Amino acid sequence: MNIAVIGLGIIGGSFCKAIKKYTNHYVIGINRTEQTAQKALECGAVDEIGNASSLSKADLVILCMYPQADVDFVEQNGSLIKKGAVVTDASGIKRAICPQMTALAEKFGFVFVGSHPMAGKEKNGFDVSDADLYHGASFIITPCGADQKHVDMLSDFAKSIGFGKIKLSNPEEHDRMIAFTSQLPHVLACSYVLSPCCPNHNGFSAGSYRDVSRVANINSKLWSELFLENKEPLITELDILIDNITKIKNAIKADDKESLTDLLEQGHKVKVALGE
Fold first, then answer.
1. CA quadruple 248, 177, 162, 11: dihedral sign
2. Which of the following CATH numbers is that of domain 173-274: 1.10.3660.10, 3.30.565.10, 1.20.58.1970, 3.40.50.1100?
3. What percent of the chain clears pLDDT 70, i.e. is strictly above it?
4. pTM for the whole thing?
């Protein structure tokens, strides 16, 4: 296939590098800044630096920008996308953009299949992209009404570049689960490092500090958009977290060892039962 990747940050750059490493597909890289696109070309991550007109020869278009930027790009350039081409996104939210993208697919004659690669790093940009970033990772597909053959094509493509598990979902389930598995930990990490103790952690910290604080190294602009676009599910998870923390806090405050032990044991049992 001819594959156009729009946005050559860590996610888009990793798609390009993985495609070139593991397949024979032809990769067209499209990026806002020419310098990054040139870097991708020079290192062999893309076969060609493209622009909007390049969409006419792409069989698969992978949108790797911020969620609303993905929609805006297709609104502006949808007429250039080849009829029948598959367009997918790599966005961490789905309810906010899937209806818009499905409507644009009907308008312009392409096929939209939503997706979300469950992989990343704390740092951003093409320089930290990696051909093996997706090795063994989960690839979530939200079909959004697309035919099974197009879902199968995207699934096969994901497996070909290293993804280990394909998970089918709908936008509602996707956003509800991502609020818990991805967004909530980022909120927790940022809240944690805002403690006045944090600047003095060196020498007092080990694995626990690293595990909890790791994702506080956050792209604030992107994650603010993700949080606000997924407000209701995230607030629900925050309420649950705050309630559980409050129970533990109250048990400590009351010197209630029995209740405290019970709360901690509940968490221990859940983790052991999951085996992860």
1. negative
2. 1.10.3660.10
3. 100
4. 0.90
